[in-house]
Amino acid sequence: MCDTPNPAKTKEELENEGWKQASVTGGQHLQRTLQMYEELGFEVHLEEVNPNSCGHCTACFSSGNEKMYRVYTRPGA
Q: Does residue 61 contact residue 15 with C-beta atoms inside 8 Å?
């Protein structure tokens, strides 16, 4: 199940709850990534990412006007 609670939690809070960062992605790849983790039995949590605050190339996301998300996973219950 995909989890997107409000307000956003800190990285430390998520890690304390057993979440691990799996990737940063968006667009169609995001949907494939979510489907894959859910099929494998993982819980999925998303945090929207500001492309300007990311430390790696975000040109594809910016040029396509796509939102970016940090994907966290943890084993399902």
A: no
Residue whose structure tokens are 């190339």: 57
Percent above pLDDT 70 for the chain: 71
Q: Which residue has the higher pLDDT, 26 or 40?
A: 40
Helices (H), 1-77: 11-16, 27-39, 59-63
Distances (CA, A) of 55 to 17, 50, 51, 59, 70: 25, 11, 9, 12, 13
CA dist 65 and 8 (Å) reads: 22
